[in-house]
Amino acid sequence: MTGIRENISLKPYNTFGIDVQARAFVSVTEASQLKEILEKNTLPVLILGGGSNILLTRDFDGLVIKNDIRGIELVDEDDDSLVLKVGAGEVWHDFVMYCIEKGYCGLENLSLIPGCVGASPMQNIGAYGVEVKDVIREVEVMDLADFSKKTFSNEACEFGYRSSIFKTWAKGKYFITAVSFRLTKKPNLNTSYGAIDSELHAMGIQQPTIKDVSTAVIRIRQSKLPDPKEIGNSGSFFKNPVVEQVVLDQVLQCDPDAPNYPQPDGTFKLAAGWLIEKCGWKGKLLGNYGVHDKQALVLVNHGGANGKDIFELSEAIITSVQEKFGVTLEREVNIL
Questions:
Q1: pLDDT, tens digit, 9 for 90 and up, residues 29-85
Q2: What are the counts of helices (DSSP H) followed by strands (DSSP E) for the chain?
Q3: Residues paired with 240 in a beta bridge
Q4: Of these residues, 52, 138, 162, 214, which one is catalytic?
Q5: For residue 29, what are the CA distances in angstroms to 88, 89, 180?
Q6: What is the extent of the structural domain holding 32?
Q7: What is the pLDDT of residues 193-234, one digit of tens each?
Q8: In total, how many domains does the chain have?
């Protein structure tokens, strides 16, 4: 099979910087290459994009396929909006910056999120009051069973909080080749979530543009989150739990100051980072790995840690939050 390399370290291909081996590795830049490779392949398959949402706990005795399908194409446009078809291997933040430079609105709050475009619908990435499902029109895939091309509409993706069919019943069934986004030409800025308004104020900006909002988001993220190039991490390791009223009451009995956010369906979203911090984990260092000292949601590899240790740390965090608050945290990161 053309381009396939054997016994490759995956350390450069995951943002945790975990050094495990893959039996075989290949980079795919076109969907047609994928079909050729898979038709001849007899090994288990692992698909990697930016490697920013995975914790590798062991060597992989199979074929790793790196999604490097690139390209940004304008496929539809009217006076108010446009549709861009984007290769799944495009770096997410580079794509956001491309849109901002062009004046295309809707992605500015999602600046500096690590990973590739293909991962954005998988986990319905979100930040600062915006979720990518709000701008995705459709997702193009290759069916790994018969190599046919399929297109999923926004509705068919069954987007939920940090979830979609690509993380639930369709996990491992499809290879995402492209994502189409409907963006607007007139900004509808969302600055009320988190610290965006106060950051803009600190920047001396009263009438922000989408570039200003993006800059504010980048500054906030950089102040709280470690750069994977310097400290291995996958961003937020846990989802913010969504709970019923009875569970919220239980949490408030433990601590009346617990932050909570009412949801349209009557449930409440809790702050996972706050729960973890209250259990004493923030800044906890266990040799060469631990919990980030500025954001308890982020588990970090200071160099040379293995994935099993980080996984066991996440298990201990989940147990302690369950015991103290009666809330079960769910990992946002995929585990191999």
A1: 998 898 889 888 889 999 998 888 899 999 999 999 999 999 999 999 999 999 999
A2: 8, 20
A3: none
A4: 162
A5: 10, 8, 18
A6: 5-67
A7: 768 888 988 888 889 999 999 999 999 999 888 888 899 999
A8: 3
Task: Please say if 330 is a catalytic residue.
Answer: no
Q: Is 162 a catalytic residue?
A: yes
Q: Cα separation of 284 and 150, whole Å? A: 45
Whichever domain contains 258, its CATH number is 3.90.78.10
Active site residue 198: no
The residue length of the chain stands at: 336
Looking up residue 118, the CATH number of its domain turns out to be 3.30.465.10
Buried b (16+ CB within 10 A) or exposed e, 100-119: beeebbbbbbbbbbbbbbbb
Q: Rounded CA gap, 175 and 178, in Å?
A: 9
Are 121 and 179 within 8 A, CB to CB? Answer: yes
Q: Taking the C-alpha atoms of 187, 188, 192 and 197 in order, what is their torsion angle to the nearest 10 degrees?
A: 20
d(C-alpha 36, C-alpha 53), whole Å: 27
User: Which among 131, 236, 314, 331 is annotated as catalytic?
Assistant: 236
